[in-house]
Design goal:
single chain, mainly beta, 9 strands, elongated
């Protein structure tokens, strides 16, 4: 696993040499989920992000997540703090039978740090309203709304 991470980091750093900082690809990876974001950053203060993720919870469910987010950077430079909003659709395949679709609407904030000119590492915090399907146990409140906070694992973004 460490060898794969080192290889991926090396490739991202090599690709960043050719980057122009308009299109971004972000990768999140932890034990139970993989998420890829593709973003468009038309200027130094705004970014539109498309999200795709695959998650699983052993003996409970697997999920596919699609979403959109908008970020507004407070300042650009070596450290770039941001605030934003997001919308996600979560399609669940429940192991005890059935399917469900949950929705998440929220706000987020965080920062990213420039390792190189077009290679960033960052994190974000979220406050979410979760709208659960009647068949969903993901938020432990089927058919109702819940609220939660979350912190992302560290992510890596490269801009071209």
């Amino acid at each position: 696993m460490k060898k794969n991470i080192v290889t991926i980091l090396f490739l991202l750093m090599a690709l960043s040499v050719f980057a122009q900082k308009n299109i971004g690809v972000t990768g999140f990876l932890d034990r139970e989920s993989t998420q890829i974001n593709v973003s468009v950053r038309p200027n130094q203060t705004a970014e539109l992000i498309g999200m795709f993720a695959l998650n699983s919870s052993e003996d409970q469910y697997s999920e596919t997540k699609f979403g959109l987010a908008l970020r507004r950077y407070i300042r650009s430079g070596k450290i770039e703090p941001f605030a934003g909003a997001h919308f996600k659709t979560i399609l669940l395949n429940i192991d005890h039978g059935g399917d469900a679709a949950d929705f998440v609407v929220g706000v987020n904030g965080g920062a990213q740090y420039a390792i190189m000119e077009n290679l960033y590492v960052g994190f974000q915090m979220e406050f979410n309203m979760n709208i659960s399907d009647d068949n969903s146990l993901r938020f432990n409140n089927p058919g109702k709304n819940t609220y939660n906070t979350s912190v992302s694992p560290l992510y890596i973004t490269i801009y071209w």
